[in-house]
Backbone:
């Protein structure tokens, strides 16, 4: 695993660089929007990557609630953090695309608002973990994560079921896209998914290490108390 | 074009900021482990 990590990191870096080159210089220019549409090559893959990590957080939180396995808790916190990073990218790149295309930075339509709410839910989850302590904290966090995940279908399906300012789904939604654009889109999604996995692996390792340090510190203070008696 | 470049630059700024926060947390944890080993 330790040897595979740097190889995977180099491959991911190459994939990201190739994806960037394709997105900026190879993909055809959109007839209506011009070059600014190229923001979708970062915006949409980031959104898909975000969903995958929040889904992982949901599954691992359920596993933690059932089995109380600390490794499941480590997966949950690591995936939530990586998901929030990608959610932040989505919330920043969206308005940067909307301003020149719609003429406004933001509108309170259901897709945009539910995505912002999703970000707020997982930031609350991380704040809860950061600023509370005690044995019940991971249980409370896991419960919050399970309820928070209910917002995910709302975000995803909002553009299918509601009339929104946000563009309707292109893939699987009856829309059409130039195959060359779709290729670059998928390439960038794979690249960001690999990048997310790398960051997730590093964050998971950090969480497992800090769990071990906490156990060692607890053991040390127990030994000190016994020694002083 | 400035919106396009801003989006790409900000995306990488967010990722780099997060990666450096991870590196800082790793360094702090390593110091804690060293201290525990000394005890």
Residues:
């Amino acid at each position: 695993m330790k040897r595979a990590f740097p190889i995977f990191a180099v491959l991911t870096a190459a994939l990201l660089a190739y994806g960037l080159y394709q997105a900026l210089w190879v993909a055809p220019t959109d007839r209506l929007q011009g070059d600014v549409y190229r923001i979708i090559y970062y915006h949409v893959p980031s959104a898909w990557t975000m969903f995958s990590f929040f889904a992982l957080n949901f599954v691992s939180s359920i596993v933690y609630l059932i089995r109380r396995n600390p490794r499941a808790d480590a997966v949950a916190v690591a995936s939530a953090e990586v998901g929030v990073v990608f959610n932040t990218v989505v919330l920043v790149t969206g308005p940067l695309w909307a301003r020149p295309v719609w003429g406004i930075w933001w509108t309170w339509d259901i897709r945009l608002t539910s995505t912002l709410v999703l970000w707020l839910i997982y930031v609350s989850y991380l704040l809860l973990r950061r600023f509370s302590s005690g044995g019940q904290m991971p249980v409370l966090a896991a419960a919050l994560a399970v309820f928070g995940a209910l917002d995910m279908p709302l975000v995803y399906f909002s553009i299918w079921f509601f009339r929104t300012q946000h563009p309707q789904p292109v893939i699987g939604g009856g829309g059409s896209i130039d195959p060359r654009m779709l290729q670059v889109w998928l390439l960038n999604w794979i690249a960001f998914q690999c990048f997310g996995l790398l960051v997730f692996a590093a964050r998971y390792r950090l969480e497992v290490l800090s769990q071990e340090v906490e156990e060692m510190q607890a053991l040390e203070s127990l030994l000190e108390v016994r020694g002083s008696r | 074009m400035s919106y396009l470049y801003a989006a790409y630059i900000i995306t990488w700024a967010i990722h780099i900021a997060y990666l450096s926060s991870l590196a800082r947390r790793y360094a702090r944890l390593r110091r804690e482990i060293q201290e525990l080993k000394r005890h």
User: Anything to note?
Assistant: Chain A touches chain B at residues 20, 24, 35-36, 38-39, 42-43, 46, 81, 85, 88-89, 92-93, 96-97, 99-100, 195, 199, 202-203, 206, 209-210, 213, 216-217, 220 (CB under 8 Å).
